[in-house]
Amino acid sequence: MTRRARRAAVLISGSGTNLQAFIDRIQGGELDIDLGVVLSNKPRAAGLERARRANIAVECIEHKHFPVREEFDAALVATLDRYEPEIIILAGFMRILTAVFIDHFAGKIFNIHPSLLPKYPGLNTHQRAIDAADEWHGSTVHFATVELDGGPRVIQGRVQLRPDDTADTLAARVLEIEHRIYPAAVALFAAGRLDYHDGCAWLDGVRLDEPLQFT
Ligand code: GRF
Description:
The chain has 215 residues and is of the alpha/beta class. The protein folds into 2 domains: 1-105, Formyl transferase, N-terminal domain (Rossmann fold, 3-Layer(aba) Sandwich); 113-215, 3-Layer(aba) Sandwich (Rossmann fold). Helix content is 32%, strand content 27%. It has 6 helices and 11 strands. The chain has helices spanning 17-27, 46-53, 69-81, 99-104, 125-131, 167-190, and strands at 6-12, 33-40, 57-60, 87-90, 109-113, 136-143, 153-160, 194-197, 200-203, 206-207, 212-214. It has an 8-stranded mixed sheet with strand order 3-2-1-4-5-6-7-11, with helices on one face. The longest helix has 24 residues, at 167-190. It starts with 5 loop residues before the first strand and ends with a strand. Residues 12, 14-18, 47, 91-92, 112-114, 139, 175, 178 line the site of 5-O-phosphono-beta-D-ribofuranosylamine. 5-O-phosphono-beta-D-ribofuranosylamine binds next to helix 1, strand 5 and helix 6.
């Protein structure tokens, strides 16, 4: 019996290279999800053009029209619900989401954060890793909860810092690895192997206390 591909939505604010990685995997037959909508909070996000080129429906809801975070989140929910997504993929979506959004899609929301969480939640992660003279930096895919960059981790990819790294050179190497780990995590979820419940991530029924490591 063939299983129906799970419906997904990708939320972006910017260039959308992670979105492009998803589009490429889907078009290449390596990722079996039905990407029904791409939503941005910025009308000029370059990622929207990537979605249009791939014939994916686009939606734009500008947060600046909503004085209260919860009202913005309620608008996101109302729009996304029309597409009945079973997977929500936050891919460079630069808004903090409240319980209005998180609870509605509980257990179905992924985020990618450019650091080896729990190190460096929040912004400027590349510069912070450089300033701390870390040996390793990278990115983490995790289930999103109301705690910013704090939900259960699923997979991490690492890059080694170089002496001449700037935030930009480091960010470029991190992005390359993001394009591999993010579709990999979503593929596990789409295949029914990865799950979120009781505040934890579970892989093949076993609690994932440490994230998978991508090498
Ligand atoms: C990525 O580095 C991601 O980790 C962060 O925002 C960036 C998005 O890049 N949350 P892109 O828009 O996918 O190119």
